[in-house]
Structure prediction request, 255 residues.
Amino acid sequence: MMQWIMAGFLGWLGGSVVNYLSDILPHKRRLVGPICLACGERQPWWNYLVWPRRCASCEAHRSIRIWIVEIIFIGASLWLWTSPPGGLGYWVGMTLLLYFGVVVVIDVEHRLILHPVSWAGALLGLGVGIWMHGLAPTLIGGAAGFGLMLALHSFGNLFARGMARLRGEPIDEVALGFGDVNLSGVLGLLLGWPGIVGGLLLAILLGGVVSLFYLLIMLIRRRYQVFTAIPYGPFLVASAILLLYFQESLLSITF
Ligand SMILES: [Zn+2]
Prediction:
């Protein structure tokens, strides 16, 4: 019983950290004390991290995301505690999920993968990668992830520029941002070589399937626009989570 409460508490704490970083980093780009996103007023730490309450000065409610993240992290913590996935263990598994959580929340809310988050991810990826695969596969994986995505990114830019010229109007959004290139480098470190190749393919597949569904829904609702950019970070992360945490289950389904 005590173990369950402990795991739930750690999950709650992890969710709070993800919420705090996702709130602060896109606005301040550095670690300052918690602030209210509506009025900018400083908030006490305990008010922010321990229990998400309304802002004392402007009474703004916290966003629903706060609760979604908390619930997901409590669930993830309990799951990792009872059945840590092959080779990762509880603490490494949780630490990686914190990083993934921050990347996904900021990318979905701001279409942005911040450089400081990528640098932290690179350090984490280097450490975990070497621990899991050894030095050479980790470095080659990182270079491959970064390089392959950089090629796609350049190709996408060329394509966007070509389309803009054809249509005679400037394009302000690119499909793949440079943040996705950095993220792929981090995932390359984590998945190693040749794991990153499967990781990128799976991400493209997931992104394609979801885009297709999205497109169909938009077509049905007659809201279709050409080149609606969707953030690619969540698909890269989903692919990495599947490969890192569920590889055994995936393999047992395939074979
Ligand atoms: Zn406020």
About this structure: The CA atoms of residues 7 and 78 lie 6 Å apart. Residues 36, 38-39, 41, 55, 57-58, 60 surround zinc ion (CB under 6 Å). The chain has two domains: 1-83, 113-255.
